Amino acid sequence: MDAELTAALVPILADLARPGGVLPELRDQAWNDFPGTASAFLYAQDGSGQGISITLGRPPAQQVAELADQVQEWAVEALWTLGRPTNWPFCPRHPHSHPLAAIEVHGRAVWHCPADRVEVAAIGRLPT
């Protein structure tokens, strides 16, 4: 798998491994041939898969935040099929209403509350 894609996935997978998350089966299968990108597939327990990708050469925090958004889409679907809450990662400020959103702020990839725009944690460091 591409080194930049792997590096961007590491903190996201760390967050998925925390309580409330779900881990994918990661497959090094390119699903697009766009120049300057790296891609792979995430698979859920039910066999469903979703492609993920990054644009190569971008700042790492941008890659992580953009990839976290894609992985979050996969996680919501995977959790739904398991009959578990789908607001991953849940917002500790509003735990029953929405998940956190991934953004890049001043060169850092973070999870923040989309309702009040408060930073909750760096991506890869979700509280347990």
Describe this structure in words.
- This protein has helices at residues 3-16, 60-81, and strands spanning 25-27, 37-43, 49-55, 101-105, 108-112, 119-122.
- By secondary structure, it is of the alpha+beta class.
- The chain has one domain (3-122).
- It has a three-stranded antiparallel beta sheet, covered by helices on one side.
- Helix 1 packs across helix 2.
- It is globular and about 40 Å long.
- The model has no long low-confidence stretch (mean pLDDT 95).
In short:
With 128 residues, the chain is an alpha+beta fold. It has helices at residues 3-16, 60-81, and strands at residues 25-27, 37-43, 49-55, 101-105, 108-112, 119-122.
Strand content: 15-25%
Q: Estimate percent helicity.
A: 25-40%
User: From N to C, what is the helix and strand string?
Assistant: HEEEHEEE
Largest sheet: 3 strands, antiparallel
> How many H/I helices?
2
Quaternary organisation of the protein chains: single chain
Question: Whole-number radius of gyration?
Answer: 14 Å
Span from first to last CA? 29 Å
Provide the low-confidence segments as ranges: none
Task: Break the fold down into its secondary structure elements and pairings.
Elements: H1 3-16, E1 25-27, E2 37-43, E3 49-55, H2 60-81, E4 101-105, E5 108-112, E6 119-122
